[in-house]
Every structure is written in structure tokens, then in C-alpha cells.
Amino acid sequence: MCCWPVDTPAGAFDQRVVEERRDVLVYTTPELREPVEVTGPVTAVLYAATSAVDTDFTAKLVDVHPDGFAQNLCEGIVRARYRDGTEQPRFLTPGEVVRYEIDMWATSNMFEVGHRIRLEIASANFPKYDRNFNVTTSPLEATDGELARQTIYHEPGRESHVLLPVIPR
After folding, report:
1. Is residue 113 part of a domain?
2. Is there a contact between 53 and 94 (Cβ–Cβ < 8 Å)?
3. Residue 20's domain is classified under what CATH number?
4. What 3 state SS string does 63-110 have?
5. Mean pLDDT, consecutive 10-residue segments, the chain of 169 residues?
6. Would residue 143 count as lying in a domain?
7. What's the confidence (pLDDT) of residue 169?
8. Residue 31: inside a domain, yes or no?
9. CA–CA gap between residue 125 and residue 78 (Å, rounded)
10. Which of 92-104 are b and which e, b meaning 16 or more Cβ less than 10 Å from the residue's Cβ?
11. Measured between alpha carbons, how far is 13 from 141 in angstroms, rounded to an integer?
12. Which of 2, 21, 64, 146 lies 20 to 30 angstroms, CA to CA, from 113?
């Protein structure tokens, strides 16, 4: 599913331009009054509905510096049709709320005093990950796509959240 073109650089980059997009949800803590160490695996749990039969959800953990520099730390993606594994694709019923776990891999970062912890949620991270045409056709064969309208839930019983391995100080 990943397609890293040779000319796509790796590493940390300022995410502010991405965060200005209308199709990226941005959740940010207030400025930290104490340092927060996060070390280990990071998981985003989303309760979401879509208008499509297949779609992607991406999540990115970001360290926002006092000057506004938004440094990406770790990220992940889930393709809805493979949310239960790649053996048997399972398509969605449009409008149905589904629980997704996005493995954002692991990181180790000290969020310093004055920094903020940010989570970005989107439905794509191209060219890092291949496009999802939001249809049942294989992504390798699809030529026409459908617009997917996404809804992320935060209500009781459907609390979307991020699991951070915070190290006690």
C-alpha cells in the first residue's frame, strides 16, 4: 500500500501548510506547563462514518514548537477494506459508524514546556501512501474515483482518541 517515490524526502518537516487544508482535522493541546515524554507505540482510535464503500484514514502525531513549527513525529494509515486484515477485504456500508485503530508506529519525544501536542486526521497522505479511489475496484486497477465525505465522532460510546505512551516523571 505504501508508495514512496524516490524523490520523496524522509524526515521531519513543518506541517503547517498541510494543517491549513480544509480536509485535515487538527486537534491541539494547550501549551504544556510541564514536559511530557512520549516513548513507545502510538495508536489513534477513530469512530468514523463515510459516504463511500472504501476509504482511508490517516493520523499524524506532531510536536508544535513555541514559534509554531509543527514537527511530524510518527504517523499511520488504515484502509477501510483491510481494517480487519488483508486476507478478506470488507467493504463499508455508507453512513455506518465504524471503529478504526490506526497504528502510528512508535516514537520517543520529549514535548517541552511551551510546546503543544497535536494530532492530524485526514483521508490521504499522498505521495507517501497510494491513493484510495473510494470504490470496490482494486487501487491498482481503478481509474475513476468517488468523493468520500467523512465524519469523525466524539460522543459518548464513540470517543475518538489517541493512545500516547506517556512516561511518568
Report:
1. yes
2. yes
3. 2.60.120.260
4. EECCCCCEEEEEEEEEEHHHCCCCCCCCCCCCCCCEEEEEEEEEEEEE
5. 56 87 95 98 98 97 98 97 94 98 98 98 90 89 92 97 96
6. yes
7. 86
8. yes
9. 11
10. beeeeeeebebeb
11. 32
12. 21
Residues with Cβ within 8 Å of 76's Cβ and at least 6 positions away in sequence, in order, are 42, 44, 58, 59, 102, 103, 104, 105
The pTM of this model reads: 0.91
Whole-number Å distance between alpha carbons of 91 and 141: 17
* 143: region left, alpha or beta (phi > 0 left; psi from -120 to 50 alpha): alpha
> Locate cell 459508524: which residue?
97
Q: How many domains does the chain have?
A: 1
Q: How much is the pLDDT for 58? A: 97
First CA to last CA distance, the chain = 38
Is 2 within the bounds of a domain? no
- CB 63, CB 111: distance < 8 Å: yes
- The pLDDT of residue 1: 46
**CA nearest 68: which of 110, 24, 115?**
115
